[in-house]
Structure formats: structure tokens, C-alpha cells
Known about the structure:
The complex is a heterodimer of chains A (355) and B (650). Chain A is an alpha+beta fold and 355 residues long.
Amino acid sequence: xxxxxPVSNPRRRRSRWPAAWTAxxxxxxxxxxxxxxxxxxxxxxxxxxxxxxxxxxxxxxxxLSIVVVVITSALVVVGALLRRSRAPVGNIEQEPVSRxxxxxAWITIGVSVSTVALIGSMAWTAYTMxxxxxxxxxxxxxxxxxxxxxxWQVRYQSDDPSxxxxxxxxxxVPVGKPVRVRVKTADVIHSFWIPAVSDKIDLIPNQTxxxxxxxxxxxxxxGQCSEYCGKQHAHMGLVLVAEDEASFKAWWDGQLTPAxxxxxxxxxxxxxxxxxxxxxxxxxxxxxxxxxxxxxLSHLMSRRTIAAATLPNDTGHLSGxxxxxxxxxxxxxxxxxxxxxxxxxxxxxxxxxxx
Amino acid sequence: MxxxxxxxxxxxxxxxxxxxxxxxxxxxxxxxxxxxxxxSTVDHKELGVRYLVTAxxxxxxxxxxxxxxxxxxxxxxxxxxxxxQYNQIFSMHGITMIxxxxxxxxxxxxxxxxxxxxxxxxxxxxxxxxFSYWAYLAAGLFMYASFLIGAAPNDGWxxxxxxxxxxxxxxxxxxxxxxxxxxLGVSTTAGAVNFLVTFLRLRAxxxxxxxxxxxxxxxxxxxxxxxxxxxxxxxxFFLLWLDRQFGTHFYNPDGQGQPLLWQHLxxxxxxxxxxxxxxxxxxxxxxALPIFCRRPLVGYTVVVLATITTMxxxxxxxxxxxxxxxxxxxxxxxxxxxxFIITVPSAVAVFAWIxxxxxxxxxxxxxxxxxxxxxxxxxxxxVSGVMTAAVPADRQLxxxxxxxxxxxxxxxxxxxxPVLGGLHVWFPKMTGRxxxxxxxxxxxxxxFIGFNMAFLPMxxxxxxxxxRRIYTYPEGMGWDTVNLITTIGAFVLAAGxxxxxxxxxxxxxxxxxxxxxxxxxxxxxxxxxxPPPPYNFPVIPAVASRHPLWEDRLDEGLxxxxxxxxxxxxxxxxxxxxxxLDGEPDAILKMPEDSLSPLVATIVMTAAFAGLLLHWWMFAxxxxxxxxxxxxxxxxxxxxxxxxxxxxxx
Lengths: 355, 650
């Protein structure tokens, strides 16, 4: 685990983890393809207790809406064509004015039918609100998510302080268990949203909002900030990994481990460069890098993406990002460090060990 | 009250537009030629057209911004705009369309039409009318000046704190917006007061409130809405400006301020505002669709009541913009219920229009096409609104492109379609020439197809999860094709608008001469020549029914309206005040002459706001003092304006 080598193949990287975990990840990847490959942020199919209820309601309202639109448009078109006057457009007075027909019955019937449809929709809404208000059992996991321009700081809570840890932009949860999410913000308003499993909840300054969700199907899901938060609102994504309980526990245990002491001199030098260039903003468990401005990097290599689900986490993108973070996400708060080639190689070497 | 001393029984006479009385009135009411005359006019017809032209110009600007955005979003990962440029453009697009186009264009219609359809000679406060136009123009230019220094508002039209505060937005972007909106609020408020008083006091004798055209009802209802809602937003922006400039903590979380306070104040204004920018447009349709269906509107009374109910309920739904802010479900359920219920009065109007088509004999003019298209667009915008009223569904739908599609069906469907249709109806009245029906059809179908091509697929974009206000998006999200279709549709829509403009340009000079009543319309404006003379009516008409020009054919009761015989009122600029409910003659009003005061007041007021923007406090103070002086000069008592006589009580 301490042997340095450039990591380019995620599978190989993961293969150094317990076998059960590797198997789960592979299965998850497949699930994710089955689940929402066409529209990763779509929500017309729910993959959680809450979102399934909401999807039913949304479909019902959508179908009702389409029916209403089709009927009323047909009434307009058919009525206009059936009753069309033969008078020429330029000589409209040829069609005599008259108070023919009563017509008020249209309003009475139309409004009555609409009102019944509305009351039905309200009832379904009320039923859904009751269904999604609270989980059926006490949440198994509590996650504290803090929005930052433009990434997600994540802290897993535990009664046992030694099991609390920080990570960023990637959340893991056990399948079939309710998860409590406490959301806060360090700057402006953001909104936490993982359409497949969790509806939106805003992150508002001086306020801790709470929501919950329960993923019912293992898979990798995408989340996205959905309240406008400034220049890089577009690139404030989030990855959710829903996995079986054992894999989840293994992942949590893995996240608690501190970074290994570098042994080889090459690695010691690499760590030095990292601490000097990156450590003021980024934290790595078990080292003197304790920065809190940027995402915690303790287990960077276990994450699937970088830059808040903007880029895949592979060597090429990671080096590109470290060398020029303003290129992909202009305006983001990680400055171009003017890092030299050899320094970049060192940082890359060190980051590759953070798995 | 020594009114007797001044009492004068107004003369009754029969007078047409070529009578000696008419030429006397013409001389009295005419605007002076030349630049000074142009700058000082208080003629509601001139000001109404200026409103329409200015608002249309802002529509074109906002449309241009939309096209630039659509180019950026046509494909994933495009780099036409930087994030900051995109954010400024989408913010200005919203601000322009919602504040500088949608409401002012309807004000334009109403300012032009109010005195004509109500049967009087001008708005109740002609100088205030001029002031509200100048202030609107000034507020628009003020906000657009931000582009000149590259610091346009960049936090959306909703402008949420704390991103709008100084720590995240140190440049003056937000100050332009905050001060510009307060300035615009002055204009909107002045306009609303004017509509309200004109409606209550200047209707033709006999025009009881159940005989008033629905456009007047719509505009008056929204004027009350404006008077109740604009204070919230003016206050909200003023507090924002204080937070930004003087470190107060209304919204600033660093000092225990409440960012949510902004949202409450803003939406308490902005949701009613959505109704403010559609109800008069619905009034345009309710008045003009029947002309082309050759029968009166079905259900006049319920449509009026529905209009008022919508506005009232519109004040009780603002929280549905905040369903995801973490408020308790109990509070949300009330607002969810109200948001469902507000559909009922809209359904009343929709079925009234459908009934009017079925019970009438529609003539397929371009205007009719726009109004019929509008009914369908209205329903689409309405049902997507109902979907967002359901709290759980909204917590998925909100802040996605689904809501973008919704708001565009509301604003283009319910505002732009009636506006374009309405321009086809009243352009002949304003200019004396007909718009080309051939070009009109071309423009209608291009606009209709382009609009639906752009925004119908956008519902899907939203259901596929595309968040709003993102300057770009990655591949593989299922959004590529729909975005490209939307972009193409937007350009088709723009082409339709260009055809419409070409129609205006060509028909203004070469269109068929309209005559007084080219559509055989029922209301008073069609009894005047096209364009109407400055005094509108040689005698104040007396109204006996809802459709004065149709009453012989409709058999609406025994009485007959008297259009050519009535009180003359030519001792200076005069108008007749009538009682609020029944339209009984009440007093002779002395109307003011043209004046430069409104323009001067606007200039010094705008200069004061510019001073606040630039932190030239002394300059702002001096301008404020000048504003006071200009107002005093404006309002200085004039002998001719003394209220000298009451009309004889019948």
C-alpha cells in the first residue's frame, strides 16, 4: 500500500481493498448503468423510498396535466374550426354580431371538473407529504453536508468520536437504511439534491436543515447543487454510492485510516512538496496538512471524481486539475499555483498514495 | 364649500369630429410641436405608444440576451461565454423581461386605451402619467448602464442573499439592480395610482362598474396589487443596499442577519407580480377575443370576479417558491393548498374564452390566432404551475428547467401572445393603418412554432434533471438533444418577432387605411377616428350598456348610449368626474397643460440615484433637494387648475 506507483487504472487501485468491497463496487457500477444511465439526474423513476412516492405523484400530475392540455387545446381548435365564420378577415362586419348561444354552462361544467381534479391532486399531495415526512425507522447514519463554493464538505457523524471523519463530494450509504442528512453552508445558499433518492433541501446560512433519504437499490447516483450559488454553480456535483451494509462498513473503516508514513525517500520528498504547496488549504489525516479551505484529501484515491463530480478521478485529469484548476472551473477558489513540472510530478506521486 | 359660486351647468351639445367644438377642443388639447412639445407632452396616447415602443425595445434586448444564452447551451461544454458573462446575461434577461418588458408593455396598452375605452379625455393625473413613463425609461437605462462597466447584476432576477451581498459580490453589480428597482418602483407606483383613480373617477357617465371593459378591470386590479406588493420589494432592495453599503445586517449571516428574510420579502412581491404581468393581458384577450368571435364575452361577471380573486389569492402563495428552504410541512401545506386553489379562477377565464369561441362565429384574423393560441399556452403554463404547487413534486421540479419551461409558458404564452394579438387589434387605432394580415399570419405561425419548439421540450429537459442557471453542462446527462432543439426553436421564435417588426415597419407607411372601427368592435375607442384626436371625444359620451357600439344589434336593455351628444366641456382642458359605482356625473375636472416638470423631476431623481450608486453623497443630496424643488414647481397651485365647478347632479 505504501509502494508508490502512478495510479491510472481505478480497478487496479481498488483491488488493493478488501475483496468484498471490490466486488460490491463492480456490482454497483453495473446497477448504476441499469438504474439511470440515460438521465443521471432524472427523477421520474425513484430509487429510494421517498423519491418513489414523489415519482408516483409527479407522474400522476404529469398525466393529468397532459390530459387537461390535450382536452382544452382540442376544444379551442375544434371549436374554432367548427364555428369558423365565412366572413373575410378584411371585412369582419359581414359576420353579424349576435348573442347566440348561452355558453355559461361551459364555465360551470369546466370549472366543476377542474375542481374535482384539483381536489384529487391536493389529496394525493397531502398523502405523499405524510409518506415522506419522516423515515419509518431511526436513521442508521447521520451525515453532515456543508455546501461551499463550489464543492461539498461531508462529515460522517458517530457517537464514537474516533469514528467521525471528513470527506468531500462523495457520499456512501448503506442500501435499505434511512440516512439522516444535516445540511449547512459555509458561504452562500446551495441546495442538496440527489434526484434518484433524495429531493431538494436548501443549505442556508445560520441554519441547519435536516432531511433524510433511503436508497433502495445499490448503485452510483449523481447529485447536483440546485440553488444558484455563483460562478461555478454548474460544476457543483456530488456522487452517491449506495452499497450493501458490509461494503459500507468497510468503506467507513477505510476512511478512518490515517495516511501511511512515507518510507521511500522519493515519497518523503513528494509528501514535502504536497505539504508545502497544498497543505494550507487541504487536509490529510495523519499528516500536518490540516487546511480546511478545500476538500479533505485523506482518501482522495477512493473517490470516483474530482472537482465536485466535474472530472473523472484519473491521473491525467488529476494532473491537469492541479496544474491549472482555473481552466476547467474558471472562477473556482483553488488558484493556479504556478506549479512546476517536477513539483507537479511529486504532488501526483503523493496523491496516488492517498487511497 | 362655496361650490355654488363656481357652479356651471355643463353644456350639452351634439358634436362630431368636424364640428367647431371639436376644433376648439383640438386647439386646447394639442401638444405643441417641436422638441419641447415632445418632451413635455402629457397626452396619454403619446405616452402609451412610448411605453409600448420602449417596452418592445427591452423585449428585443432581453431576446438578444436569450439567444446568446441559447448559443452557449446549444451543446455541452461550450465556451462561448465565461461563467460570469453567462450569469450577468441570464440575470439581465430575467430582469429585462419581467420588469422592463412584461409589466410596462401592459401599462402601454392601458395608458393608451384607458381614457378611450372609459370615455374620457386623459388619465386622471396626466403629468404623473408622463412622470411614470420617464421614470420607467430612466430605471431601465440605469440598470442597463451596468453593462457599460461590465458589472451587470449577476445573481438572477431573484437576487438571493447572501450571494448578493458585498462579501460575495464586491462590485457595484447589485447596487445597479437595487437602486434601479427602487427607481422603477417609483414609476410603477405612480402608474398604478393613476390607473386606479382613472378607473374609479373618470369613466363616462353611465358606465357603471358592470359595464367596464375587462382590460380596465385587469389593470385596475393589478394596480391595487402593485400598491400592496411594490413596497415589499422596494424595502427589500433598500435593505439590501444598506447591507451592502453601510454594513447593516438585515440579510447578512455574518451579523446574524436572515438570508431567508430576503426570500420572503422578494416573493411576497414577486409572486403577486407574476399575476400583475398577466391579468391585464388576460383582459386584452377577454375584450378582444369576443370582437373576432362576433359576440360578447361569455360570463363577463365571473371573469371579472375571477380576475380579482386571482389577485387576492396571488398574495397568499409566495411560499411555494420556498418549498425547499426547510420550512415545516404545516406551513408549506397551507401555501400548497392556496397554490392549487388559485387555479380555479384561471379555469373560469379559460372556459369563458372557450365558451366564447364555441358560442360565437370566430373570424380567423391574425389577432384571433394569437388569442386562440394563447388559450392553449395558458393551459400549459397553468398545469405545469399546478405540478409545482404539490410540495413533494416541487422539491424535485424546483430549480430545474421544468420551471424555466413553466415560467416561459406563463410569460410568453400569457403575456407576449396577447400583446402581439393586441397590437394587431389596436395598431390601426394608434396609427390609422392596418397591419398586414398576410405577414401577420407568417409571424404568428413562426412565433407559435418557434416558441413551442423551444419550450415544450424544455419540460423534458427539466424532468431529466437539468438545473437552472448553469452556464454549461457535461455530456451524457441526456440533455444534449433537447437543448439543441430549444436553441433552434429560440431562433425560430426570434425570426417570428422579426417578421412582426417588419410588418409594423411596412404597414405604418403602406398599410390599408383603417377607418374608425376596422374590426367592428363594441367599445368606445372604436367610435373615435384612427388615430384619435388629442381630446379623444368631442363630447363626453354617455354609456347605457357594456357594448355601446353593438347595443342596437344585441338588444342589451332599453337605454341607448349617446356617443355624439353629451357634455362638451371646453372651458380649457376639462374632463368629467363620475361616481365610483354607477358612473353618475359628479364634477368637472380641470386637466393640466403639458409640462416639463415630470421630465425634470425624473432627471434629478435619477441623478440622485446615480449619486447614491457612485457614493457621491453630496451630489445625491443636492439632487434630492432639486427633486423637491422640481416637485414643488410641478405642484405649484395654478389658477386654471382650481376645481371650479360641479356638474349638475342629474
